[in-house]
TrEMBL record:
Its cofactor is pyridoxal 5'-phosphate. Pfam families: Aminotran_5. It comes from the Bacteria. The keyword Transferase applies. Gene3D superfamilies: Aspartate Aminotransferase, domain 1, Type I PLP-dependent aspartate aminotransferase-like (Major domain). It catalyses: (sulfur carrier)-H + L-cysteine = (sulfur carrier)-SH + L-alanine. This is Aminotransferase class V-fold PLP-dependent enzyme.
Length: 418
């Protein structure tokens, strides 16, 4: 039976010329950036003619824009079921949110070797800061994944107990294999060892309900552009104490409560009174439209409901896996043999064809866009035994079974011709 898209997204009717003639373009790269929901594009179009700078003035438009911006914060907090006193900080994207948090963590961070670079390099860099400022004393400790999730959780627990750590920073869903980790269990493991947990939800937030308070997640980050909103805005949600104690992420207007005049007779730094709360780390004029768009996406996704999203995705994934497994020489990649859940992502290799050749064939011969390469997760591709990379197809609410069928038929065609 056919499976239809469950929401309207921009670009759904895009057509391209390819060897097969003019065809509807299949977007198989939602995990890199998902197309905006048309409902989100509509909200942006409505907000666009009517804005002024936030937090700056008594003027009508400034007040209106400030109200919309602060409302967006509240909507995001509700979407992820945050605690009442959590900070919701608007960032540029997931990478930005993790870099921000990395400045605030007072100790070691433990990560897995399968993380996206965004959840690895900021920790390694903040560890390197220790050399310049020994008082910071923080390292990044990397744990190698075991063949099962269960054994991997044990290895994480052992590492957290071996030496004190401030944070466990872990992905909610792998950006390469789509495999989902058990968040509540991970939070318990971190807390039992006296650490906190950050979940990189860049790939999880569009696909699964997240309950920050219920799962015991201390910090959560995600990006608007993977959550059916456009580019340039992301979110960091979490506990305020470390964030309020940290140096402001961006020094500048908005981050300060009071700046005294400089004293020309001394080189001493002036005593600036930095704000606490989200403003401390949101120096400069924020991406108001980006925040409004994320909030609109949260509302639209909640309206659709994660139950419906989950069923739709399950149907498409089963169809995709079945068809891929039936093609000679196609091998799907996974990190764990016992992972129970996966979002709408599949990575695979095709024997005798480089990942780039497969991706080019799909685009040039069939008008199907997928991603190939190492997906900003080089250690993971090493871990999987594919340092040369793989092909990744990813989908979401705007995908239907004809997209999946076209992709798998095109792959079967490629294999049959060789
Ligand atoms: N983490 C994961 C799991 C991701 O998939 C991505 C994006 N590929 C990121 C972090 C980084 O997101 P952004 O590029 O929006 O900062």
């Amino acid at each position: 039976a056919p499976v239809y898209p469950i929401a309207d997204v921009v670009g759904a009717h895009e057509t391209v010329d390819c060897a097969a003639g003019r065809v509807r373009y299949v977007n198989g790269d939602y995990a890199a950036s998902a197309p905006a929901l048309t409902a989100v594009a509509g909200e942006i179009a409505q907000a666009l003619p009517q804005y002024a700078s936030v937090h700056r003035g008594a003027g009508h438009l400034s007040q209106l824009t400030t109200a919309r911006y602060e409302n967006a914060r509240a909507v995001v907090a509700g979407f992820v079921r945050a605690r009442a006193d959590d900070h919701v900080i608007f960032t540029r994207n997931t990478t930005d949110g993790i870099n921000l948090l990395a400045r605030a963590v007072p100790g070691d961070t433990v990560v897995l070797d399968v993380e996206h670079h965004a959840n690895l390099l900021p920790w390694q860099r903040s560890g390197a800061d220790t050399k310049a400022k020994p008082e910071l004393d923080r390292k990044c400790r990397v744990v190698t994944c075991r063949p099962t999730v269960a054994e991997t959780l044990e290895a994480l627990a052992a590492e957290l107990h071996r030496a004190p750590a401030a944070l466990l920073a872990v992905t909610g869903a792998s950006n390469v294999t789509g495999e989902v980790l058990p968040l509540a269990k991970l939070a318990d493991i971190a807390h039992d060892a006296g650490a906190r947990i950050l979940v990189d939800a860049a790939q999880l937030a569009p696909h699964r309900a997240i309950t920050v308070a219920g799962h015991g997640i201390d910090y959560l980050v995600f990006s608007g552009h993977k959550l059916y909103a456009p580019f340039g805005c992301g979110v960091l949600v979490g506990r305020g104490d470390w964030l309020d104690a940290a140096e402001p992420y961006l020094a500048g207007g908005g981050a300060t409560a009071d700046v005294p005049p400089t004293d020309p007779s001394t080189d001493d730094a002036v005593e600036v009174a930095w704000r606490s709360g989200p403003a401390r780390h949101e120096g400069g004029t924020p991406n108001v439209l980006g925040a409004i768009a994320i909030a609109a996406a949260c509302v639209a996704i909640d309206d659709l409901g994660f139950e419906r999203i989950g069923v739709h995705e399950h149907l498409l994934r089963t169809r995709l896996d079945g068809a891929l497994d039936a093609i000679d020489g196609v091998r799907r990649l996974s990190i764990w043999s016992d992972s129970r859940d996966r979002v709408g992502i599949a990575a695979f290799t095709v024997a005798g064809h480089s990942p780039r050749a497969v991706a080019e064939h799909l685009n040039d011969a069939h008008g199907i866009g997928v991603r190939d390469g190492r997906f900003c997760a080089h250690p993971l591709l090493h871990h999987l035994g594919h340092p040369e990379g793989a092909v990744r197809v990813s989908f979401g609410v705007g995908t239907g079974s004809d997209d999946i069928d076209r992709l798998t038929a095109a792959l079967a065609d490629l294999v049959a011709r060789t």
